[in-house]
Amino acid sequence: MSAGQAFAVVVQRIEIRKLRHGDNLILGFSIGGGIDQDPGQNPFSDDKTDKGIYVTRISQRGPAEEAGLRMGDKIMQVNGWDMTMVTHDQARKRLTKKNEDVVRLLVTRKSLEEAVKHSMGSYPRQ
Amino acid sequence: MEDYDVRSAASILASVKEQEARFEQLTRALEEERRHVNLQLERSNIPPNPPTSQPLAWQQVVMQEQSPSNATSLAMMQEPQEVVEETVTIEEDPGTPTSHVSVVTSDDGTTRRTETKVTKMVKTVTTRTVRQVPLGPDGLPLPEGSSPLGSYTDSIDRRYMKNGGDRFITPQATSTLTRSYNNSYNDSYGETPESQYVRHYGLHDGYADLTENYGSLSRGVNFRPPRYPYLPNSYRPENSYTLPIRKDDYGHVAQPQVPMGSSTVDLNRSQPERFQAEPYGLEDDRRSLGPEEEEPYELEPDYSTANRPLPECPGSPVHSQWYPDEAIEPELIDERHPYIHGMYSAPLALPERGSMASLDRMGGRRSPSIDSMRKDPRWRDPDLPEVIAMLGHPIDPVKSNAAAYLQHLCYENDKIKKDVRQLKGIPVLVGLLDHPKPEVHRKASGALRNISYGKDNDNKVAIKICDGIPALVRLLRKTNDMEVRELITGTLWNLSSYEPLKMVIINHGLQTLTNEVIIPHSGWEHEPNEDSKPRDAEWTTVFKNTSGCLRNVSSDGAEARRRLRECEGLVDALLHALQSAVGKKDMDNKSVENCVCIMRNLSYHVHKEVPGAERFQDPSALQAPGSAGPQRKKKDDAGCFGGKKAKEEWFNQGRKNGENDKNYDTLDLPKRSEPSKGFELLYQPEVVRLYLSLLTESQNYNTLEAAAGALQNLSAGQWTWSNYIRATVRKEKGLPILVELLRSDSDKVVRAVSIALRNLSIDRRNKDLIGSYAMRDLVSNLPSGQQRPAKNLEEDTVVAILNTIHEIVTDSSENARSLAQAQAIEKLVAINRTSQSARETKAASHVLQTVWSYKELRNALTKDGWNKGHFQVQATTPKATKNGKPGYDDTTLPLMEKNQGTGKCGSGDMIPMDELGPDGYSTIDQRDKDCKFKTVDGSVDQTEREPSKNDTNRKHYIRTNRPAVSLVDACDVKPQPVDSWV
């Protein structure tokens, strides 16, 4: 595979119940990244060609924080939807569905990944 | 919806009838089944009372699943379906339900499952029709139209390989997937499929439960544990295949009994396991679908898991909705879990395997994949020649599956793309574009899109050579399927990034792209209906792709520009779209960026190239060599400009007046008798406001750069319209907006704005204003000697700023004074002496010489500690002016004609454009041309092609780590990371 793949091998599931905030349902975190974004500017990725969706900020005592989401987590799936190959806006929309009270995230974070890398060895890249 | 093709009305009718017939048959079969069970029941003396209110009555629940959208139902109806009905009869001890499951698989990938469930204890027959939706790797239904790639491809190749293709061809004459078939299959693969997916999909059962639509049907259905062992054998083959079995042949055949509970244990995953770490391999499969665009995501909100009640509350209303009979419900719920897996096994098994394969690939072990090794050492992936051979398989679904698999394989894998090309796969894929079956041409488009992406231009050329471009365009005209349109336009976008293909795309596709996509999605109407209010642009993916494609081709030189300008409705539609973007304050998206870039490119050299341009040339600039409109001077063509002669004089008079008494502000624009249209719109003063709005509101650097570039292009040159543009920018209060953008963090925005200011200062009044108000911002962008300012602007930008400063101080001692007061001399001297860049040195030197030429300033300068030596050309600097002429067309100055006339002649020579000439810096110059739009030699315009690509080549580019771009080429990256709260 060429560069750009994230070998997120270990994932964690995080379930966040949205908080009603006026008319809005909020999750309490912000995302960056997406295939339409410049991955070089993503401060969280190791691989600067990774165009995945990352958690960039987490609001204090918000639902995301309480659910255990952390800054820098890479979001792999949202409610089963792949988030590794979506535009920023698609990810945002997927997360902010008005009719969904709960989002289940599949995330990976470095600490988890690390362990796996050790066990799996390095991946050759084309 | 998309799939729906008007032409196929007849076939729809046919298929509806066919379905009706099928249902009739089905009903008969059920009748028979009912009699059969009745008989049994009678024989067995009526078991104890079931918990139903009508103990002895059959309860029949017929569930017709609702399609998630119209699209689905239409898609279902659209083509004659090959249907498989499978009936599974399980007879067991009393107390265990017997169910008859009919699976009707149609060749559009959907499966109708009719289950007749007989529970002796309960005496209940549940009949339902379930439409099997393609399932994503996570077990959730995929959006209609996005293929369950994994399942398709994997199942097909696996079987194909195994059986050498025989099985595909052999018509499965009997509906029931005869036992022998199952067995043979079973023999080959053993338990592989189910255990496989079980491992993976077991995780999802928590999610799986209670979807409102599909969930309650496909999951809540009361299948029994004993049933699922069949699935891998009987159900799955044709589900993933969808092919061989003829609809007419279905009958009602008793199926083998299966011992109960054989592998139930495996299948039941406990809750906690859902959350355990698991290999994450799905991304690859999903990714291979290509970038998912808005529509697929948005189409079926019902799929989203949030609709589903949590597993903890199984008795939700959803249930009663589908199972009106309370009595059945408890049972259903109880048994749901075991059999969820059964339900899911077939479709889900495959993606997982596919993703495992992808993992393998990453690990360098391509095939056989880990799990297949583990499960069955005889299994292997098909190799590439085999997949390509399958593209020519007589059975359509094989073709489409092979194409889908190719798409998957090619994703981000240049080696495979190359191999596909060398194995002559591309012509076959292109041939499939004309295939009548949507599934086939859709998958072929998908594969071509992935193949066309990337740096390897040979792939693009290969598509062109086998006439892929006209084929794509043809399909675009034919299809209404939004996904196919996205794929086609995405492919064309990719192709358009390669120079030699641009003209081909223009020749074959320009008008079609405009008519089919740009105009309808822009909201522009040729002849607006008085009653209807103007429509807004829709920023669809198709529009984005198409505008990206046109953006690329618009940089292919004068002829390309001419074709685009004259393409009927294009400029009108683009302008309308942009105006709509401004109106809605939605200006940061890619489509807007693309549109502005096209507009900028088409505005380039507009004063020379549009028909009749020569009549608007400023007489004072006529001596400029070659400045007259080069091609297509149609004298009569410009009738739309109205009474030319008089107006022209009037223009010129106005201009002269303005120049003489600085009275530009009072200049009125000519009244038009009729609204301008087409390319005239490019340079009407009205566009100034549009660009200024974009410059004010947009956060997208590329859009800002392009809007500034458009103003730059329009304000260049000596013709009547550029005079008006320059004046209009001022009157619309555009100068402060531009000056403000000099503070932008984006290098290219600063550069474009700086050059625009330079062109605008051709207007004397503008020059005075810019000198007074922009000088500090210009100077602050200059580096202090070797030490770069925080912004770290590129050499090109620094040179552009220096040249702009030079233009401003030329013929204006007042401005030169402002420059000195802005502490610029120190910086200029430092650059002149110490800059590593010869171009910067020269540009600075020219400014310094000009400043020193104002004798009235020398006193002040001397007081500040400067002497003549500071303003002289450094000995080491290459002679500038000598080489000046050939290099005059400095990219940073592109549109300014050399002999501006009106007292500027002198200054022309002093402008340090020569550094771009043949003085040893030509390579830099070349590079420069690639990123600006202003050289006179015509090759300039390549600039706009692919900003990001050009940027990557730059040595000194600030962001060295440019992305490799996504699936779509030439999709330059938004400079600013977007960050959204959710």
Q: Largest sheet of chain A, described in full?
A: 6 strands, antiparallel
Tally of DSSP helical segments of chain A:
3
Tell me the quaternary state.
heterodimer
The largest contact between protein chains, plus residue counts on each side, is:
A-B, 68 and 62 residues
Strand element count of chain A? 8
List the uncertain runs of chain B.
46-373, 621-666, 876-976
Q: Report the structural category of chain A.
A: alpha+beta
Shape of chain A: globular
- C-alpha Rg of chain B (nearest Å): 35 Å
Structural class of chain B: mainly alpha
Rg of chain A (CA only): 15 Å
Main sheet characteristics of chain B: 5 strands, mixed
- Approximately how much helix is present in the residues of chain A? 10-25%
The parts of chain A where pLDDT drops under 50 for at least 5 residues are 1-8, 121-126
The span between the termini of chain A is 6 Å
Q: Give the averaged pLDDT of chain B, no decimals.
A: 62
